[in-house]
Amino acid sequence: MSSEEFPQESLSAQHPTSGAGLPNPKSLARKDGASIAYHKLSGDKSGSAQPGVVFLGGFMSDMTGTKAIALEDHCRERGLGFVRFDYLGHGQSSGSFAEGTIGRWAEDAVAVLDEVTEGPQILVGSSMGGWIMLLAALARIERIAGLIGIAAAPDFTEDLMWAEFSPEMREEVMSKGRFERPSDYGDEPYIITRELIEEGRKNLLLREAIPIRCPVRLLQGMRDEDVPWKAALRLADALESEEVEVTLVKKGDHRLSEPEDLARLTRSLDEMLGKVG
Description:
Distance between the termini: 37 Å
Strand content: 15-25%
CATH superfamily: Alpha/Beta hydrolase fold, catalytic domain
Order of helices and strands: EEEHEHEHEHHEEHEHEH
Largest sheet: 8 strands, mixed
CATH class: Alpha Beta
């Protein structure tokens, strides 16, 4: 992956009607005064035995992206509970993106699990959201029925950014505290802070076995220019779960947001619900 091109996923791939005619998001207050914006779909009480679904977006993306909306529509049709939200400094949540770290965004996800959802949940994490998904699952293992990763990128700040930075880029991050570069995915530049890199090292997962044993599905495009497809195999090997399946999409890119990709995603969710619901 080219580290300076990590995608702002939903900024250029938004659902065509995102935000149009939709209610304003609800707000979850954090103890430090921050507020997390979210949308919640209540499940059909008659199907309350089935897990809910929580979508976790990617780096510099928000909850209005194509995959989030497609999942919400699917969950509505099936009578399932569903939550999508924005991390600190993303979308409609408070704060500046540059204030965020992997650990903080994982705390946001855990807060949503604790205060917005009830009962078992299936977490669906896209790109960076795949890392956040794993950290949230480890923090609330008893609440997690299953995981679905879409181009999941655990440890990306170290393995897909820092490892590929030039000496000059590393020096700028360390001396100035941040590195900014124009993005091919939106108007806002990528902001890579020293704190993002250094704090990310406290949350690395792939250096040892990951004690997650619930069913896991990993969807990965083989034409993904941002997360190498072999990263999905590395993650599958690290997970302790014996119920891990990796789907490699030969023509798939990083976003996996084409109609056939969305159909594959919802099929994966339905298949998992058949196992754990």
